[in-house]
């Protein structure tokens, strides 16, 4: 499963149906991570000296978002799902996290070393470190979607259960992440044509992100897979459309 990694098919259903949307929303998030990985692969070996600082900032910010996503899953989402789906239902997902986390941590440490000056930037090193875990990560991103299939959600949970979960996730994200980086990444790793309503932010906040937060690190976001309008940039491994389920 070498680069470029294919995007995940969007599950069937209506995103406005909260039971259908658990898998749909996760597929959108996971495709953001796949696009980001592809963009890093596509550009790492061609980075010029003057681009090292903004490119490594993009990479570290992206990996931080990926880390936090899996932290939220293990500490909030998975325990919640297991209350009704059964103890250990999500164990395979957690085991997959552990299988790629060491490689992800190693790449992140290297990039932070480049930022601090203790490491010298080398695009080939980045590719080698990505190769150590990217296949396992992408396999996990695919495998997790069926665990949230609509009929499973509908059989186990009420609409209120899932609304409360979504509110809890939103609250945790707002408290725990850097809004300066995570909110712009939510725009520039998502293909807006596949889900125009995503990310589900009020229009006023979207305006602030586009015209305020984005500009703080626009040099770094230039390496993202999409522009801030959610238009996919060609040539970064993400040219194929999202498959249909």
From TrEMBL:
One Pfam entry name: Hemerythrin
Span of domain Hemerythrin-like: 29-144
Highest taxon, organism lineage: Eukaryota
Classification via InterPro entries: Dimeric_xanthone_biosynth (IPR053206), Hemerythrin-like (IPR012312)
PANTHER family for this protein: EXPRESSED PROTEIN, HEMERYTHRIN-LIKE DOMAIN-CONTAINING PROTEIN
Protein name per its UniProtKB record: Hemerythrin-like domain-containing protein
Natural source organism: Mycena albidolilacea
């Amino acid at each position: 499963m070498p680069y470029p990694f294919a995007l995940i098919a969007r599950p069937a259903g209506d995103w406005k149906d909260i039971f259908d949307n658990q898998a749909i929303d996760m597929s959108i998030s996971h495709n953001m991570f796949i696009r980001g990985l592809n963009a890093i692969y596509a550009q790492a070996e061609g980075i010029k000296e003057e681009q090292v600082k903004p490119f490594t900032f993009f990479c570290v910010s992206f990996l931080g978002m990926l880390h936090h996503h899996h932290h939220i899953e293990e500490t909030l989402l998975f325990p919640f799902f297991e209350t009704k789906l059964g103890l250990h239902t999500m164990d395979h997902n957690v085991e997959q996290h552990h299988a790629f986390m060491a490689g992800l941590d190693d790449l992140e440490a290297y990039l932070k070393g480049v930022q601090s000056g203790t490491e010298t930037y080398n695009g080939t090193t980045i590719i080698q470190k990505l190769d150590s875990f990217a296949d396992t990560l992408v396999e996990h991103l695919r495998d997790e979607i069926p665990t949230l299939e609509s009929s499973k959600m509908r059989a186990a949970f009420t609409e209120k259960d899932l609304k409360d979960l979504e509110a809890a996730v939103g609250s945790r994200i707002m408290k725990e992440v850097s809004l300066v980086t995570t909110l712009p990444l939510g725009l520039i790793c998502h293909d807006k044509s596949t889900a125009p309503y995503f990310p589900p932010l009020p229009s006023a906040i979207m305006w602030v992100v586009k015209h305020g937060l984005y500009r703080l690190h626009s040099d770094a976001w230039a390496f993202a897979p999409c522009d801030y309008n959610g238009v996919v940039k060609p040539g970064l491994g993400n040219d194929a459309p999202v498959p249909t389920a």
